[in-house]
Amino acid sequence: MIILGITGGSGSGKTTALAAVRTLGGLTLDCDEIYHRLLVSSPGLLAAIDARFPGMVRNGQLDRKRLGSLVFGDKAALLDLNRIAHGAVKAEVVARLAGCTKSLAAIDAIALFEGGLAELCTATVAVTAPRPVRIARLMAREGISQAYAEARINAQPEDGEFRRRCTYTLENNGGQGEFYQKALALFQSLIPEAHIDIHKEDNHE
């Protein structure tokens, strides 16, 4: 199985890159989605977060925005939260990969390297985009303020760090359809058995 690690900051376009992987018949593992599902299905994860951040879990639910406001301004707190989350997410990713019968899979994670997920991958891909575009996407997608979106981005590595650590880089500096085709072309080049005519694919605009 070829396993691609897709990483990059919030709002960079990783979701569109995952759509290209699905076009090629691959399994996609969105670590943000996995984490949010575990917050509902894993009492142990919630308990660990509550022990480190008292008051952030109420009636069995995590106040994500309140916790985010805390950790995005406190590097030590963010490291602690990531340490708790990374272990739970990696265990779930490993379990899903073990049960996968496809020849291609992709792991989407901002903390691909920090969370120990890169070591599972055949190749890693950095997705980058201009900062103003990322801020606008986050505000529209999640209904958050500009200040909160900027705080999230500020707490993440710079694009140069993603480029330095990854095997490949996809620059998302055009339209969504253009970026989808760019991602599809790269992923297809990494899979010898893929024979999809990318020009006939849905442009995802």
What is the distance, rounded to the nearest whole angstrom, between the alpha carbons of the first and last residues?
Answer: 30 Å
In the predicted model, the low-confidence regions spanning at least 5 consecutive residues are 194-205
> How much beta, percentage-wise?
5-15%
Q: Number of helical segments?
A: 9
Order of the strands making up the biggest sheet: 2-5-1-6-7
Order of helices and strands: EHEHHEEHHEEHHHEH
Mean pLDDT score, rounded? 90
In short:
The protein is an alpha/beta fold and 205 residues long. The protein has helices spanning 14-23, 31-41, 43-52, 64-71, 75-98, 131-142, 146-154, 159-165, 176-189, and strands at 2-7, 27-30, 57-58, 61-62, 104-108, 123-128, 168-171.
Describe the structure.
- Helix 2 (31-41) packs across helix 5, helix 3 (43-52) packs antiparallel against helix 5 and helix 6 packs across helix 7 (146-154).
- This protein has helices at residues 14-23, 31-41, 43-52, 64-71, 75-98, 131-142, 146-154, 159-165, 176-189, and strands at residues 2-7, 27-30, 57-58, 61-62, 104-108, 123-128, 168-171.
- It is an alpha/beta fold.
- The radius of gyration is 17 Å and the shape is globular.
- The protein has nine helices and seven strands; from the N terminus they run βαβααββααββαααβα.
